[in-house]
Every structure is written in C-alpha cells, then in structure tokens.
Amino acid sequence: MKILMVAAENDAIKGAKVGGVADVVRDIPVALSHLDHNVNVIIPDYGNYTKVYEFRTIASFYVPFSGHHEEVKLHEIFTDKNEVKVRQYILSHPLFSSGGIGRVYLDDPNDRPFSSDATKYALFCAAVVQALYEQHLPKPDVLHLHDWHSALIAVLCEYGARYKSLKEIHMVYTVHNLALQGIRPFSHDESSLEHWFGSLSYDGQIICDPRYPHCFNPMRAAINLVDKVHLVSPTYALEVIEKSNYDKGFFGGEGLEADLTKASEEGKVCGILNGCDYQQVPKNATTHEMLLKKAKRSITNWMSATAQLKTVHYLASERINEWLIKDDFNGPLITSIGRLTDQKVLLLRQNIGHEDTLSKILNFLETRDGRMIILGSGDSLIEIELMQLMVKHDNFLFLNGYGHELSDDLYQMGNLFLMPSSFEPCGISQMLALRAGQPCLVHSVGGLKDTIKHLENGFCFDGNSIKQQQENLISVFKLSLDIYCSKQKRWINIVNNAKEARFNWHDSANAYVKYLYQ
User: Stretch 449-470: mean pLDDT, rounded?
Assistant: First the structure.
C-alpha cells in the first residue's frame, strides 16, 4: 500500500517539531514500513532544511493561490532516520518561513486568530494537491492528513474542478487536538477561503463553523469530507462526541460534537492510541547534583539567546544555587514537562478558596521534604505565575524553556510525574515517564485514562466540576506520597509496572491498516 502523510510537523527532520504530532509523524511511518507499506511524508520547508540535509529537487511548479501563480519547489531530503520505505519530502516557498528561519507556528493577535498560519498552510495544502495533480508526487492509495493544517486538502479535492481525479484516493484525517481548529472567515479578509481560492465553488453548510456560520472551519470540513476520522486514543474518541461543559470541567467536542457523532454513527470514527519508541531509551545515569548542574547550563543557554536577562532565568539560577548548597536532598522529586497552556495546568492555577492548587501541593510536598521541578514554556501569564510561585516556595524550581537531554534526565530522576491536563487527546509525556520507570499522577481523561491505571502503574483522579477535580488531585497527590514514603513494597510494585507498560507503534500501525486504511 502507498501512503502519503501530510502534516505541519515531523520530528524525523531536525527543527520541525513543536508538539506531539511531530512524534507521531516521525514514528508511525516507520512502523507502517515494517509492515511492508511504502510511506511518504511531506511538510512545509520552514527555511533551512536543504541547508542541513542532502536533498534532491524533484520539481518546480506553479500553484494558483490568492489571484497569483506561486512558484513552489518540491524536494526530497535524506535524513539519518530515513527508512527504505519512508521518504521525506518538503515544499519550499518564502511564505513558509515568513516568521523566521525554522519557525513553525506564528503568534497572531487575538482579534485575528490563525490568520498568518492559516494563509501559510492554505498555500501548503494547495501545493500538495497541485503536486499530486501534476504527478510530481506518486499517487497514493491512502492520503493521510494530520490536524487542521492539512485539512484544506480535503476541501480542494472535493470542490476543486481540476482535482476531481484525486477524489478517488482513500482519505484519512487524524485529529490530534480538537481545541485548535484553524477557523477563518469565508471572505472579506486577506486570510480567508475566498481570498485564497477565488474560483472555488463549495458547499458552505458542510465546511462552515457551526458557531460562526460566516467562517470556514477546516477541521470540521475534513471531518465531514474524508473517508475515515482518527482520534488518537479510544477514550478521546468517546469524549469528543459529547458537548463540552466547562463549568463541570469537561472538554469534549468543542463545537464539532454533532459532526463527530454523525461520523461515528456512519462508522467513520476510530480511536487508536499513539505509540512510544522503546528502541532508543536514554540511559543517562545521573545524580540530583548532576541534574541541577545540567539545568543551570540550560538556563545559561536560554539567557544568551536574548540581550535582556529574563527575571525567571535569574531566579531559577539562584534557586539551583540554593539547592546545590543543600546537597543532602533525598526526598521525593516531582517533575512535570510540557507546554504551559490552560489545557495542561488549568487545575493547578484556579483557586480553591484563596490558595491555588499548586501551592497546596507544594506545601504538602514540603512536609515530606520533597521538591518539584517544572520544565516548560508557553502562555506568558502562566509563566509569570509559576515564576512568582517559585519565589514563594523554596522547594519549587521553574525552568522556563525546553531541552531534550534535560527532559530525559527529569523523566529518569523524578519519582512522580505530574500531568493534570483538563483534556488530553493522547499524550506522550506520560508514556516517556512510564518508560523511564516514573509513575504518573494524571487526570483520568483521553489518552491519560487509556495509559495510566490507578494504583497499578500510577495514580488517577477525576471529578464532576473543576473544584472537585482540584480537590481530588490534592487528595490523590497526598495518597501517592504516603505510599512513596511509608509503603515501599507497594511503591516498588507501581514503579515496576510503570517500566513494563508498553504502547507499541507496531500495534498502532496494524490498527491503522485494519480500521483506517481499508
């Protein structure tokens, strides 16, 4: 079977990763190739990949877009992760690197959400379709689209008069995160469907946003137009057919529940859990002191990236100095790694009464002589809040950045991994923590519910409101530390179960072929 995967990210290419979708697009093609399928992967060239890798130019062609014919180049690049049956392609155009060399996503103002990225990925989708139409890319048996960034391909294949021959291709759409849908106006804006494709005749009832009918919703369009819709965990596939209820702390279909319910009733929807790579497990044996010194080197590198010193880096460096002086630490180490968004940390931020949940956790952790390290970046307000909490709590270190080796060490050195996401389509951090033998404390939603079993390989909480979820989070946190501190045999059993947990890409690939590609 010939498969073409289209995405915005791909961690098989250095610098083309922002989130978990990049891990999927890196790993699932390899797993499918081991089942004797030929897989091609294509993403935009964000400006520097032909300078990093050997490549060959396959074609230079013109794409009708925004009233012009834009010249786009198609390259195949040769990475150190290339497999015999996995070929890596990039499309090059100045618009794809308009935000700076190597910049994947752009930050648009709140009054024009997605505007820059939507235009960029509209041209990318048009270029993919044109490359298939002109046969610069081999025609696949399966065209697999990932998230809203590639969803316009389904629209162009359905409504583009010149692309009718592409409609016969079996099309699959993976929803990695329903919270981001790429919504833009139909018209009267330079970042709108009719501005990009002025001659496109479409059915607005199928591709409009259900909440804003004057807007085009690429994610809804793909859900309605493709042959199969893939959610990245079985539980998430059930959650998204229910309406979100924020008062109860439930994040479901985010406005698309009716479309997903209809697709589910038609047999189009399938929940298949993502996998994890168990072949190249980091083996960086380290000590608490070595971890702190590596963290300090990371902070120094982050400091050198800008002319002005960020207060958060100075405070983190001072906290590390304090901890290094007190070299007798042997209490529990709590770790957390991830993007700082409300999806990930809402339950830690909102108050119960007057004291925030994270402060209550840190106060209890102090009674057990424990420490917490959070590694991440994202929402600037959340970054400030965590920095201020670091000042208030001597047992808390906030590292405002990201480093691959540093994260590997945190997975290995931590005793308990904290992941209280309000929703989690699949999640990869909990799998990496389990792989390193670190039990996880998670909110029992989405892929977290499918991978963490309470008191078996970790700890889970739930609740019918945000307040109840916060209370249960604190309660289960106390339970986990009580087991760690006073029930050693039970703790060791949970750690061993965490190490032995397996979520293989081979199983996911077999499920793709059986449930998505047929």
Answer: 96
pTM exceeding 0.90: yes
What's the domain count of the chain?
2
Considering only CA atoms, which of 1, 511, 27 is closest in space to residue 270?
511
Q: What is the β-pairing status of strands 68-78 and 86-92?
A: antiparallel
Q: What CATH number corresponds to the domain at position 27?
A: 3.40.50.2000
Angle at 100 between CA 136 and CA 316, to 5 degrees: 130
The verdict on 271 and 301 lying in the same domain is no
Q: Which segments within 265-370 are labelled E, that is strand?
A: 269-271, 333-337, 351-352, 355-356
Going by their DSSP bridges, the two strands 54-65 and 68-78 should be labelled as antiparallel
- Listed residue (7, 63, 190, 214) closest to 116, CA to CA: 190
DSSP secondary structure of 3-71: EEEE-S--TTSTT--SSHHHHHHHHHHHHHHTTT-EEEEEEE--S-HHHHSEEEEEEEEEEEETTEEEE
- Does residue 282 belong to any structural domain of this protein? no
Residues 34 and 146 in one domain: yes
What single-letter DSSP state applies at residue 257? H
Radius of gyration from C-alpha coordinates of the chain: 23
Backbone angles phi, psi at 53, to 5 degrees: -120, 155
Cβ 281 vs Cβ 499: under 8 Å: no
Mean pLDDT computed over 471-477: 97
Separation of alpha carbons 345 and 389, rounded Å = 14
d(CA 232, CA 159): 28
> Mean pLDDT, the chain, as a whole number?
94
Residue 280 belongs to some domain of the structure: no
- The whole domain housing 256 covers 2-275+506-516
pLDDT, tens digit (0-9, with 9 covering 90-100), for 145-202? 999 999 999 999 999 999 999 999 999 999 998 999 999 999 999 999 999 999 999 9
Same domain flag for 32 and 52? yes
Alpha-carbon distance of 189 to 115, in angstroms, equals 9
Three-point CA angle 498, 501, 503, nearest 5°? 140
Whether 33 is covered by a domain: the verdict is yes
Tokens linked to 499: 């190490």
Q: How many CA atoms lie within 13 A of 69 on its CB side?
A: 4
In angstroms, how far is CA 227 from the centroid of its own chain? 24
Q: Do 377 and 456 lie in a common domain?
A: yes
Within a domain: 283: no
Task: Write the pLDDT tens digit of every residue in 51-101.
Answer: 889 999 999 999 999 999 999 999 999 987 555 689 999 999 999 998 888
Q: Do 306 and 207 fall into the same domain? A: no
One domain for residues 318 and 409: yes
Is residue 11 domain-shared with residue 95, that is, in the same domain? Answer: yes
Same domain, 173 and 222: yes
